[in-house]
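Give me structure tokens for this 339-residue protein.
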Amino acid sequence: MLRDRWLFGRAADVFTLQWHLTNACELSCVHCYDRSERRALGATDAFAVLDQLDDFCRARGVGAHACFTGGNPLLYPRFFDLYEEAAARGMRLSVLGNPVRRSLVERLAGIRRPVYYQVSLEGLEEHNDRARGRGHFDRTLRFLDVLREARIGSCVMLTVTRDNLHEVLPLAEALRGRADRFTFNRLSRVGEGAALELPDRRDYVGLLRDWTRLSHTRRGLGFKDGLFNLLRRRHGRPLTGGCTGHGCGAAFNFLALLPDGELHACRKFPSRVGHVFDGGLAAAYDSPAAGAYRRGSAACEGCGLRRRCGGCLAVTYGCGLDPLAARDPFCFKDEADRV
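Here you go.
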């Protein structure tokens, strides 16, 4: 079991490797974090990564979660071979990608159904299709139906910006009965996202409040942002797990593997901790850089919610602040009672 009890009292029984198999993608989303030409690993190296993940998780006494993403992970030439091998090893599986053909979903289910398949929408049809391409909204709704028919759990993710803040709640209603889970996180102003704006802090806190109210009557709403816990604690509700189930789980129960083998604490901002073939997964996890990201921002030390929150390091970075020193600029701890 992964433990950091000397820091925040956390203990995790599953470790997630969010594996960005390729940066290749048929979409050109306005907030894409990385469109660089990173060379994807060949088949031999990719299977060696599974060996490392297997060995690491066995040594640490945790379950292995292989989360395949991209780009579009199904554009990786050996995707199904890799997925089948991970399934054969008994790993927990998930896919973060784009809508694909029914035949590919059936092939996926024929190997083993992932715990969930996550797609993204950025609002209702007009706004979403400006952000992700014409026709994407309708394709995604039809794809959610395909997932349901295949008995694969579905999740929809939205990245909150100033332009789509007002579309979050209407989209939640539009997805009623279509998606098993709908959640959101804040824009990280990195890559293409650097040209976009975050919402006003007060307006975003209002969204957290309204989302919490809606959750009383609407099932399937996710609480990915650890800042929700400021409201939940104030009203005596059970705390949520935040971004990774353990607040900000960067370099704790989570690492991101980029197509070329770089390992990062979080995919949403530059946070390199090592390379999968230069020391390996275990060395990267135990590195001083990873330890610093596990500790998180010094501004959060002493906060009673640290193990379930920790703010968002990527948002802090995207606002031009030091994520290891500055407080999440959206944190409203001092005003939670008034909110």
